[in-house]
Amino acid sequence: MPELLLELFSEEIPARMQARAADDLVRLVGEALAPLSPSDVRSFFGPRRIALVASVAAGVAATRGSERGPRRTAPEQALAGFLRKHGASQADLREEGDFWVLEKVSPGIDAAALIARELPGILRRFPWPKSMRWGGTSAFTWVRPLRRILCILDGATVPFDLRDGADDGHGLASSNITEGHRFLAPEPFAVGSAAEWQVGLRERRVIADAGERRAIIDAGLRDLAGRHALTVVEDAGLLDEVAGLVEWPVVLLGRIDVAYMDLPAEVMQVSMRVNQRYFALRDAAGNAAPYFAFVANIAAIDAGKAIVAGNERVLRARFADARHFWDLDRKQTLDSRVPALDKVIFHAKLGSQGDRVRRLERLAGVIAPMVGADPAVAQRAAWLAKADLVTGMVGEFPELQGVMGRYYALHDGEDAGVADAIRDHYAPKGPADEVPTAPVSVAVALADKIDLLSGFFAIDEKPTGSGDPFALRRAALGIIRIVRERRLRLKLAKVVADHQFRSGWREVEEEVGDFVLARLEVQLRSEGARHDVLAAVLRFADGERYDITLLLARTDAVADLLGTEDGKNLLAAYKRAANILRIEEKKDGPHDGAVNPAFLNAPAEITLTEALDSVEANVARLLADEDFTAAMETLASLRPKLDAFFEHVTVNDPRPDIRRNRLRLLSRVRDAMHLAADFSKIEG
């Protein structure tokens, strides 16, 4: 099959937009050239180009077909509309029975013609997040000025341009010409294939494949750090970004002025990352090393000495700014900053950050005894938790909120548990984050997330399928992770209800609780766990519905039961009983009255009734004692009695009283099973 190579060469494309743009290019070209059955599609992206390579058919063969139109007796307007839709005339129609039929002929088209016809429209509607116009009067836009369009099919240029009526499209037209590195090899050169394009670019100091550039940078960083007995602070996001900033990556190492090594390691790392895209390094002990690594876009003749010196000079200026904030912030205690939070709006309907701090202080005191924390210490931590938002350092680097609060709290002489809780109360921010472990940190972290959920649900700002602007799903997942990993007994709905009553908000404890449980179900599904068992347990959990630890213990016990032969057979027997009841209750139900011993005559039904007397009482007691494993084992003891019942007893006995009594017995079996879970919701 012919090979198509398309490259769109422009001024520097923001790194964050490159991968998505390459995906969009593949999607749009694939849709437009679908008649050519594109295959083996590969995409490329970098600072100055996005491209794709694909195998396509040589063309589309001509086709003939027919389409039935209106009835011959239809109004003229209907026939005219049909002809207009297909661009045909009445001479193209023939009669077939009571209908007009259009004979359609689709002429064949070769691949080059189809590509030339479709690509201008793709480029004009390309979905960049932000686009710009430049020079002249053309309405054509691109993320940055588009300079060249390379489009070749089997070695030959596919000719097209971007003119659109009177719009000259900046005079852009396709060719077989591209360019190498802006500084090291800027001269244009021609290519005749994808392989020649990649080789030609590499010879001209451009690595077209983003994955290869990333791998080169990663290996270079590790090698350079290893030669100095250092390690690189892992930062996958920065690695991706830097790979999108350079075409010919060269990893270099610079030194940090010793005068700034007493700055907090997090401050140095964030300053280097945010301002300069530098990589932080650690020594063998895990401490911040007096070095930084960065990636240049050229291989300099002096081995990068001048580049390193320039970057060291820039970093000194950045760290001087950080030093200013560090020294200035410590002149004022965190406690003295809290009143300033009253001037920082959290949300128009939820008040200021000061209002929020007062809510957190109260809520942390409520939660503290539930997690083994000292209420007074937890309240102090909550009171100071947001104070660093009004510091200079956090104003400059919002990523450091919480982190700087801890440093400033320690400087003020606050309790170490308070300081750690200030840092940890935002955690976990994502699945890779660790959850807080210290009781005070746990109390404040839960208070922060519960207040967030309660507040936004109370003002009816809930997540939708298309968005979650206040990160409420993340807050719910944070609560779940903390509770699960710390095995906490948190009465979530009770905490929310108490918090809302005190705050005068709309009562939404069940909404918040159900939202958290929905996230738990999604999480279990992603883990491959029995989310259907969770759904079955929820219906009959009653008072423990929002006690996640207890709920999961019960869920695990039911899942363990279903993993045994007795459990599988018990489930099958339950479903059989439930099916019989569903059918018979439509006739003359419900059949939920007491079983009459006088109508029990078959040994198997007598044995089952006696077993139920014991099982119901024991299961209820064991569930109340939270001994879920024993409760499930007790339920499993019903299995042989149920098997014998179905083997030897005819439920729909011709005698009405006997039939009704046996249906009530099956209803009692169903109710006994429902003490543990709604087994109708369990798959299988």
Write down how many β-strands occur, each being a DSSP E stretch of 2 or more residues.
19
Number of helices: 25
What would you call the structural class? alpha+beta
Oligomer kind: single chain
- Residue-averaged pLDDT: 94
Helix content: 40-55%
Q: Radius of gyration over alpha carbons?
A: 35 Å
- The total tally of domains equals 5
Distance between the termini: 48 Å
CATH topology of the largest domain: Hypothetical protein af1432
CATH architecture level-2 label of the largest domain: Orthogonal Bundle
> What is the highest CATH level, the class of the largest domain?
Mainly Alpha
Morphology: flat
The biggest sheet, with number of strands, parallel, antiparallel or mixed sense and barrel status, is: 6 strands, mixed
- Low-confidence runs: none
Strand portion: 5-15%
Structure description:
- It is a single chain.
- This protein has 684 residues and is of the alpha+beta class.
- The protein has 5 domains: 150 residues; 44 residues, no CATH class; 120 residues, no CATH class; 194 residues, Hypothetical protein af1432, CATH 1.10.3210; 122 residues, Orthogonal Bundle (Isoleucyl-tRNA Synthetase, Domain 1).
- It contains 25 helices and 19 strands.
- The strands form 6 sheets. Strands 1, 2, 3, 9, 10 and 11 form a 6-stranded mixed β-sheet that branches.
- A hairpin with a 2-residue loop joins strand 2 and strand 3.
- Helix 11 crosses helix 14.
- The longest helix has 25 residues.
- The chain is flat.
- The two termini are 48 Å apart.
- The relative contact order is 0.05.
- The mean pLDDT is 94.
